[in-house]
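for the writeup, i need someone to sanity check this before i put it in the appendix. the sequnce is what the collaborator sent (i think, or maybe the updated version? ugh). structure was predicted straight from it, no edits. if anything looks off just tell me and ill rerun, i have time this weekend
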Amino acid sequence: MASIDSSNVFIKEFQERYEKKMREKEIEILEHWKSQLDRIIAMRPDSIASLQTQVAKIAEMMANRLKILKKG
């Protein structure tokens, strides 16, 4: 019986650590992309065309990152 309890405790602790790590990773990812968007805001693009170019660059960066993650 003690083995089952210790297994349950281990599983619960492992799950909590996993969820914490996932939250930390999600925060890290969101901070990265937010900083990319903040750079565009700080640039104060002259026209819609330059803004579209900057947004397209970020979209391309995101697409490349997704491609890398899906391969690995």
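The chain has one domain: 2-71. The chain has a mean pLDDT of 89.
thx in advance!!
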